[in-house]
């Protein structure tokens, strides 16, 4: 995955629906946090509207929105990324969308996400002190479908009524200062391994269990016979500066 995405610089020619939905929702939430109207219609607009109604963002005290970072971590190593929002006390905020129920199992799984550790490490290095918690907002994608003989307007009204406090939630995930020290050492070790690596091996469990956008070309990659993928303009197109 690393080789195809960051060395061969490939991306799918068509954005998967799940990523497209997430990106559109993020764009709407960004406008809401800036105090701008979200003019997105359809289901995305109703999801963003639920965020506005059920997430207490007005009391947060937001310092920055879509904050990019580029931090020197070690020899020839920089961490680059973008955080959805940062609060006045330095706490990062991340927005997620999810197809299933936002239950304790989902929250526990998210707590294991390495993204939490990397973002907290980045902010800790920026602040020169431990930043140990991240605030998550998670919006469940509507599971109700358009009924026969139902208009789009009627369906969207049902979607709006479907949302409540159980379908869009906010919670915190915490890392200890000791855990952040461990993840910094791990990041440096991984970077050293990537720099010296001559051959990148497949990870079949990722392909078969988690799924991968590059699965179609992974087994028989041929740069002369490439279908369904295009070259990226830069390694991290989602970042403005990198």
Write up what this structure looks like.
The protein has about 240 residues and is an alpha+beta fold. The protein is built from nine helices and seven strands, in the order αβααβββααβαβαααβ. The protein has helices at about 1-5, 15-35, 40-55, 105-110, 115-125, 150-160, 175-195, 205-210, 215-220; strands spanning about 10, 60-75, 75-85, 90-100, 135-140, 170-175, 230. Strands 2-3-4-5-6 form a five-stranded mixed beta sheet, with helices on both faces. Helix 5 (about 115-125) packs across helix 7. The chain is globular and about 60 Å long. The two termini are about 20 Å apart. The mean pLDDT is about 90.
The number of helical segments is 9
User: Main sheet, how many strands, which sense, barrel?
Assistant: 5 strands, mixed
Average residue pLDDT: 88
Shape: globular
Strand content: 15-25%
* Class derived from helix and strand content: alpha+beta
Radius of gyration using CA atoms only: 20 Å
Order of helices and strands: HEHHEEEHHEHEHHHE
Number of strands: 7
Helix content, binned percent: 40-55%
- Uncertain ranges: none
> Which strands sit side by side, in order, in the main sheet?
2-3-4-5-6
Q: Ends: how far apart?
A: 20 Å
What is the element layout, followed by pairings?
Layout: H1 2-7, E1 10-12, H2 17-33, H3 42-54, E2 62-74, E3 77-87, E4 92-98, H4 104-111, H5 114-127, E5 133-140, H6 152-162, E6 168-174, H7 177-196, H8 204-210, H9 215-218, E7 229-231
């Amino acid at each position: 995955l690393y080789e195809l995405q960051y060395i061969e610089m490939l991306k799918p020619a068509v954005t998967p629906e799940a990523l497209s939905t997430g990106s559109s929702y993020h764009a709407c939430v960004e406008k809401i946090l800036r105090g701008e109207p979200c003019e997105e219609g359809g289901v995305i607009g109703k999801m963003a509207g639920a965020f506005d109604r059920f997430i207490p963002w007005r009391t947060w005290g937001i310092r920055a929105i879509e904050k990019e970072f580029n931090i020197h971590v070690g020899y020839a190593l920089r961490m680059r990324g973008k955080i959805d929002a940062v609060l006045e006390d330095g706490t990062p905020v991340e927005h997620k969308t999810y197809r299933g129920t936002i239950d304790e199992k989902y929250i526990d799984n998210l707590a294991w996400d390495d993204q939490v550790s990397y973002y907290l490490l980045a902010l800790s290095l920026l602040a020169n002190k431990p930043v140990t918690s991240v605030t998550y907002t998670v919006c469940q994608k509507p599971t109700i479908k358009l009924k026969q003989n139902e208009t789009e307007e009627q369906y969207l009204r049902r979607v709006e009524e479907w949302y409540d406090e159980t379908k869009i939630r906010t919670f915190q995930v915490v890392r200890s200062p000791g855990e952040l020290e461990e993840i910094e050492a791990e990041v440096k070790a991984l970077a050293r391994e990537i720099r010296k690596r001559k051959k990148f091996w497949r990870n079949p469990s990722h392909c078969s269990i988690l799924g991968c956008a590059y699965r179609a070309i992974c087994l028989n990659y041929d740069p002369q016979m490439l279908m369904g993928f295009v070259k990226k303009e830069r390694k991290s197109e989602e970042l403005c500066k990198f």
